[in-house]
Design goal:
Layout (H helix, E strand, L loop, with lengths): L2 E7 L15 H16 L6 E4 L3 H14 L5 E3 L8 H5 L14 H16 L10 H18 L5 E5 L1 H12 L12 H7 L8 E7 L2 E9 L1 H4 L7
Amino acid sequence: MTGTVLLVRDGHAAWDPEGPYAISPLGWEQARLLGGGLAARGLTPAALLHGEPPCHAETVESMAEAAGWSTEPVLDPRWNCFDHREVLRDHMPTMVGGADPDPVQVQQWLQVAMMRWTSGEHDDYTEPFEEFARRTWAALGDAAERARGGPVVVVTSGSAIAWVVVAMVGGWDPEVPAAELAGAWTRLYPVVVNTAVTKIAVGPAGARVVTFNEHTHLEAAAPVPG
């Protein structure tokens, strides 16, 4: 028996330096387009999972409404993103007080900050990179088991999707430090597009990546934001 897990990155979120991220009007439209596209393919999920951030739940809401799905969403905090604010805390002096950050500067800060976080050489994070990697991997394992009973759609973060792909392609063993694949993860993570779909096939040999970052539903409608 085979199954399918579709990992969906959450819709475009509005920047909020203090509160939880919520998707923007663009994010709602992206999710609506994806939901309609999946329904047109005849896909009805047996399970619909998402992380805790509002942007995850709102993406599910918009997708499900457009697709006409009645599947009850299930919250699984293991699909949460890592804490950007904590990782960036020493690199964001101008990103406080509600200021709208410059995207190029944010990416520069994030690259430096993630090198520190993923190195495994610092113990001052609430969730070390190793813990992020292991709980995401465990969440995938449970989603794969669910997929044996029908298609599973998971709305999560680009960081979680990138780790799943890197871990699979790199043949990661949870007994091996995740830091060994951190370089590949930091390169892949920034290219995951909002509401893009990554397909995981589940078969007798386990789970395998079939497609990564598919977002034709956006290309047909409007330019993808950078």
